[in-house]
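Preliminary data (for renewal application), 5-O-phosphono-beta-D-ribofuranosylamine complex.
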Amino acid sequence: MVRKKACIFISGYGSNLKSLIHRSRENNFPINVSLVISDKFNAKGILHAKKNSIPYLIVNTKKRNFENLILKKIKRYKISVIFLAGYMKIISKNFIFNFRNKIVNIHPSLLPKFKGLNTYQRILKQNEKQTGCTVHYVNEKLDSGRIILKKSFFIKKGDNEKILKKKTQKLEHKAFPEAVIKIYRYN
Ligand code: GRF
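Predicted structure:
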């Protein structure tokens, strides 16, 4: 099996990046994490790239052409799929056009519910019974692309934002690699 070269976009802690790097050590995992891109110079997740000798790029999003720099790098590394793992910057339409159906995001809610930011806070406010995470393709509309898979759990009395985040992220670390396998199962 020829493994696809994947680029992971991060902005923060990088726990999902870590889980993807971990799984891509298995020879039959469909992707290899070949490049990491961060829009924050102090993102903790960059350490996972460094530790695993994975090339990384920190982009200055104040520069108008920063997405072109990303595209250049992605072409140089022959990247064929992009995973957004906590990347907090909105991707431009032009960029999405260049990578149609090749950008995948993970979101901490059961989409289409609770698109956007402050998800845990809103989930608790709405007294939801269940929550979870969703892996989906990225299109021009925020958190609205085709869903690849979801994982859910029941919210318990007393669960606060911190607990919801912990439970959701635990699921995410399984969901993202599972989604990768699902994407390539029939390809
Ligand atoms: C994840 O919970 C993901 O759903 C959201 O951002 C968070 C990133 O966490 N989009 P990490 O940086 O992977 O630890």
